[in-house]
Amino acid sequence: xxxxxxxxxxxxxxxxxxxxxxxxxxxxxxxxxxxxxxxxxxxxxxxxxxxxxxxxxxxxxxxxxxxxxxxxxxxxxxxxxxxxxxxxxxxxxxxxxxxxxxxxxxxxxxxxxxxxxxxxxxxxxxxxxxxxxxxxxxxxxxxxxxxxxxxxxxxxxxxxxxxxxxxxxxxxxxxxxxxxxxxxxxxxxxxxxxxxxxxxxxxxxxxxxxxxxxxxxxxxxxxxxxxxxxxxxxxxxxxxxxxxxxxxxxxxxx
Length: 254
Known about the structure:
Blueprint: E1 2-3, H1 19-31, E2 36-38, E3 42-43, H2 52-68, E4 74-76, E5 80-81, H3 91-96, E6 105-109, H4 119-128, E7 132-136, H5 142-146, H6 152-156, E8 160-164, H7 165-168, H8 174-185, E9 191-193, H9 201-204, H10 206-212, H11 216-232
Helix pairs in contact: 1-2, 10-11
């Protein structure tokens, strides 16, 4: 599997605090079946105004540690960019934060509370500048939980949606799980990622989340096919045609 959202770089945000933490996250990822992971530290104006230079420096440090420890995990660059940082970042900086090292894709952080009135225009302006947005974990937002269809205009304009693994298998509660499944049913979700902050399989959980779908083809599309296309700069593969009604849905959704 390919995981395009993690907080594995130490000393930058609320993820790994030390290099040992980073190695532990990497080892847990490998044990969970992940072969490639993108380091996507928070980039936001409040607590974590990460710069491209800081991301790249820590990326090199963790890559060296992975090599020395013989951990078979490919580490790619990136950043989880908050909407309020977009006016402060020029195109060159945004390209350096390109998801999985692809300068055409940006991982943007969906807010947990409230839905920004200007988000459609902000993402459209990014597209005019040559960037495709990957929107991280909108299923955890209360407004999206109330109306998952609000993502339709964004997806129709080319935005990709990334769900958190812990949402789909219920670790984050009923609201994110129900909404994540609904977004998949509506064809409004394209990737699955760990958003790992801690070095435990419970915090990684990509395998469990993909299995919870009960649809191997869709699970592979979310965790392998689409992430690989982004990382390798290829064309996005078509979504599997198998009916989403065959998901293994929890009892409270039946």
